[in-house]
Amino acid sequence: MITKFITEVSTTFNPFLPRAKTARLFLSFLPPNARQTMKVDTKLLPRASRDPSLLQLKFKDGKQMKLDAEKLGIKGVVEEVDRHSRILSRQEELNGN
C-alpha cells in the first residue's frame, strides 16, 4: 500500500466486532513512522455499540475519502488508496519533484 501521499487517517470502529477487521488491518498496514508523517486518529467504540466502522483519509492534494470499511473489505480499501496514490505519484513525476 502506498502511504507516501496520505496526510491524515481517522478511524472509528468497535474492536470487539468481526466487522471491524478491515479498519484494524488498515491501521496495521501503516508504516512504523506513520505518526511522524501523518495525523492518525483512532476512535474506539464501546462493546455494545452497533455503529458502522468508518475510515476517513486525507491526501496531500486535499482530497478526502470516506470509506465504509465494512462493505469494501481490506482489498477494496487498499485498492482505493493505491489508485489515488498512483495518480498523485504520476503528477509528482510529471512536475519533476
Automatic annotation (TrEMBL):
UniProt entry tagged with the keyword Mitochondrion: yes
* InterPro entries hit by this protein: Ribosomal_mL53, Ribosomal_mL53_fung
One annotated GO molecular function: structural constituent of ribosome
Is the keyword Mitochondrion assigned to this protein?
yes
Q: Which domain of life is it from?
A: Eukaryota
Any one Pfam family here would be MRP_L53
Q: Which GO cellular component terms, listed alphabetically, does the Swiss-Prot or TrEMBL entry include?
A: mitochondrial large ribosomal subunit
Please provide the record's keywords in A-Z order.
Answer: Mitochondrion, Ribonucleoprotein, Ribosomal protein
Where in the cell does this protein reside? Answer: Mitochondrion
Classification via PANTHER family: 54S RIBOSOMAL PROTEIN L44, MITOCHONDRIAL (PTHR28236), LARGE RIBOSOMAL SUBUNIT PROTEIN ML53 (PTHR28236:SF1)
Q: Which family does it belong to?
A: Belongs to the mitochondrion-specific ribosomal protein mL53 family.
Q: Any idea what this protein is called?
A: Large ribosomal subunit protein mL53
- List the source organism: Hyaloscypha hepaticicola
